[in-house]
Amino acid sequence: MKRRILSVFLCVALLFCTLSVLAAATDKTRYVVLGDSIAYGSGLSNPREAVYGRIVADTDGFAYENYAVPGHTTANLLHRMENETVAESIRKADIVNISIGGNNFLLGNLGGLLYDGIVKTDYTKFDEIAKGFSDDLHEIVGRLRDLNPDAAIVLQTIYNPQTSYVGDVYQNGADRINGKMFEFAEENPGEIIIADVASALTDPDTDFAEDRIHPSAAGNEKIARCILQTLYDNGLGDATEPVIAVPGTDLRGTGGFTQMVDFYGWLFHILSVIRNLFAGMRV
What we know:
Blueprint: H1 2-27, E1 30-35, H2 37-40, H3 47-50, H4 52-60, E2 63-66, H5 74-80, H6 84-92, E3 95-99, H7 102-106, H8 110-120, H9 124-147, E4 152-156, H10 164-187, E5 193-195, H11 197-200, H12 217-233, H13 256-282
């Protein structure tokens, strides 16, 4: 009889512990990351463990899911949100963190855009791309709100990883995209929270990987710090100093893209000098 009572007691205790663990897991803030290669962690050899989203989740004790895909544009993100697994995670999310927009420029005619910016100083196509980004952003936020009216939406600004002649062109593109983000936030109060990552990544020697596109391990830590501060300021997180559970390792051997972009920058700068020279002679 005593053994039966003891067995029942142990079963009840085990059930209580299991329910307590489940309840604790359910109580965690659900943090979902969407977007592109920046959010994926493409500048790292160990993105799953060291990307900024993981750092944010580890620091604040969030339940973390990352559905970012390298190369994604705003149009790709709209399609991604139709995936039922992704949609279900959004439905349950407390915070949705998005990095998107850079590929709207990069995956277009990059050479043509650099030519327009450096040689012609004509940014008409940049304005068109920014307008397309704005249209997609309205639709992205609308779909998120259809899936989850209550989640906080954190949108990251686009940084400029380039220097020299190409840097000015990149900055013009980033400024246009970021301007559309701030414009949306102003016109739709309370709909999105902007994490100004562009202001956090300012050191070209340490913040970016060899490809000079994606954040390095140090860059990911800076992004994490920026997002943690943004969450803290909006009552969504408890910490501002990143907790690094697994140190990031920079991805090596990715300098080919950098060399191509530098070549374009140098070539188009020479063309711009020649063009201006001939223009001066005609005058």
